Amino acid sequence: MNSKEITAQISKAADFLNLKKWDYGASFSNDYSVQVDKGEAKQLKASQKQILTLRVWNESNLVGITTTSDISESGIKKALNQANIASDFGNKNEITEFSPLAKDPIEVKDAKKRNPVGIKKLLTILREAEVKLLESHESIKSVPYNGLSESFYERVYANSDGAFRSYTKSQAALYLYARAEEKNKKPRSSGSVKLGYGVEDIDIESCIKDASNKTISHLNYSSIKTDKYLICFSPESFLTIINAFSSMFNARSILDGVSLSNKNSIGEKLSTEALNIYDDGLHEENISSSPFDGEGTPTKRLCLINKGRIENFIHSESTARIFKTIPTGHAGLGSKVSVSPDWIVVEKSEENSDLKISLDHSTYEKEFVYIEELNAIHAGVRASQGSFSLPFDGWLYKNGKKISIESATVAGDIKYLLKNIVNIESSQEVTTSGISPHIWVDKLSITGDT
Amino acid sequence: MLSSQIKSNEIVFGSCNKDLLEEIIFYGIGLGADFVEIFIENTDNSSVLAEEDFITSVSPSFGRGAGIRIFKEKKDGFVSTNDLTKHGLMRSVSQAIEMLDITDNKKREVFNGLNKHKDYSLPKKKWINEVPSIHEISEKLLVSTKSLKKNNKIITRKGSYSRNLQEVIIASSDGTYASDIRLYQTVGLNVIASDAQYRSSGSRRFGSSGMPNEFRLWDHEKAANDVFESSMNMLYADYVDAGQMPVVLANKFGGVIFHEACGHLLETTQIERGTTPFENKLNEKIAHESVTAIDEGISEGSFGSLSVDDEGMEPEKSVLIKDGILKKFISDRAGELRTGHKRTGSGRRQNYSFAAASRMRNTYIAKGEHSKEDLINSISDGLYCKSMGGGSVGATGQFNFAVEEGYLIKNGKLTSPVKGATLIGEAKEVMPKISMCGNDLELAPGFCGSISGSVNVTVGQPHIKVDSITVGGR
Known about the structure:
The complex is a heterodimer. By secondary structure, chain A is α+β, with helices and mostly antiparallel strands. Helix content of chain A is 20%, strand content 39%. Chain A contains nine helices and 21 strands. Chain A is globular and about 75 Å long. Chain B is globular, with a radius of gyration of 24 Å. At the A-B interface, strand 2, strand 3, helix 2, strand 4 and helix 8 of A face strand 1, strand 2, strand 3, helix 2 and helix 4 of B. Strand 2 (40-57) of chain A pairs parallel with strand 3 of chain B.
């Protein structure tokens, strides 16, 4: 069945069961991926997946939900039945409705959908990439984590009120994670990930070069003394921190009591006036962009922090109703609708006179720590308390030289971090999770050698 | 007509599918595969969330699918599909064959048909009717969250339950033919406490396998008291000072460090990648002589237990480390093929869309002879890690774990609570420093994410003392 036929099938089965109000979200995908090991194919994978999440409203307007991979006629009937039974336990205290924007026009970017290149081509490309990476430096002994994949998918939202949205997309990803070894030294590892709409869009040479350069740059390493340091966050690491604490802008988290913000936090000063943060799911650099969210609300650009102050929260239909505003296109379909950001964009605002512009990671000669990548986010972030303690890959810059930091963690408080931003560099960089310039923060604790 | 006599063109759960499975395997072998494996599943899951005094989410789900794996020499092709018809399964076999570029089918493996069906599911078919209903679960969760409401500093209370019922059929060209029903239930409590600028949280998770009545027996009052006490103890705690110091790790979930920092390095997938420092250390000392470590899938009711692994092998009890000496690796079929280490009944996967890989089950450090007090009394200045958060291990073996509930040890006594601590180190450096093991081994359930998805496991240990480790703080 295609998406139109599924919608018709659900409508027919719902009528039969006397269910007047329903909606669903579905995704259908075909994925292909390869891994190699020293020139040989290791694992080749293909999958065909279909997932349907179906909500129904009962006569008391309470919602029940079911998720299934069985999209046969009998599977759909069973899903409707289960959702109807689950609706008896629907949340009476927070009524869910269709998004009022579910039929609004959506901005569909040029789909840039590519055709599959096929497993054999994927394998050839990855084999060549592995060889080139191994040959790039004598210390690189293996590429233990590698993969090249391509995915082709369709996403659909429809409801009993006549809303119907769908879009199809393709996406490809290459990751190369190299391991370098030198005599009498610990092995060092680093890598690179590149995304594209299709394999032909991926800059493979740049992925190889990045993985090689990063890995080699960590060969000369040393421990770091435990202390407070001036820190320069790479665009990737700063976006990691912002995403980890995005509950500060999340209306669902606020209602659930797990955010550092509250209903009255709009306008609260969090940072230097030089900081602007947006969520921009439709940004042209966002390969994974979706024109609508799980409730069918159109995706749009939204300012989260304007000149250091909280400007907006991200919403689903129900949180928006409670906050007396409109949904922002950040909902994920579920029994309890989730809310999450799409694609974070960090910028320097016009009010930037208080920044120390001499802090530039490419020219600054005094001591600072450059954090390239933060790790173990799920373990080291306490979003509800605002604290973090995270291992990182990075370098200590001192007297014009840089040395890789062997093993260390950076710890602090997100509000302290935002308040102590001392520079936002001008040039932004595109990463897989958003766009940001390098951000400098003063006096963060680093634990290394004691 | 007996069900076994029905010739079906589609997999039917609860029926004999032998003819159809054999036909598909013959097809793969005939096309030149060295080995063909079919994994088919049918799931029936549900989860319930209680927040404060209300049920806020009930989420049933169900599904079915198949994963087909073809080996040719040491490489493998894996295809997953939701199409369980004969046509769909054969198409998946063809796709895998094509991916592996198998064209020379002259050297053909022999398939002698499937062995006698090993049906582990027979005593388990009634489980679906014995597990608690959504109504029963909801009532108990609400009582649980209510019992967390002990003072006005508790600002968030949550109770969550999930039940996964998975029916599997496994067949492969070495004759393996098995089916099973697995039941996993887990329940957790979480609180956030707040007072002025102070915030803390507490959480505990409980879980079982194959015990439909377990949720009814769960002592929610005890769990609620434990979570409440933990959050209150940590509410006004100071940040710990960073440093190198001796630590005592509590039993149960303290074992997550062994699981993450050492256990993963003993999986054959790590040997295949060349990313374990223990690759050539079999029968060599890799840990302190007080350490014996085990991985098994047989403890009754434990969250990582199973009757048969996802490759059709009964799980064994594997002694990984005996008195500090490395004795065994955790292996699956691909691991045995590529590294030579014998399978241990550890081929596991999240669901049909993942190829099985060598994964831990119930993994723990065996009990020693000391009391908890012996360990603490032996330290003049250190840290007691009562409750561990999550952690991670880097590609070169460095680990980092958050301490959820910690206390300073001064002159052999527990003193003030501290927060913000992380334990940092490398397995091969820390393992020799585990100098004392307590006599109070206990297991705790968890979920482990890795190459073949998220699988249920238990971690465990008695109280252990690490002579020196880096503690991250502020």
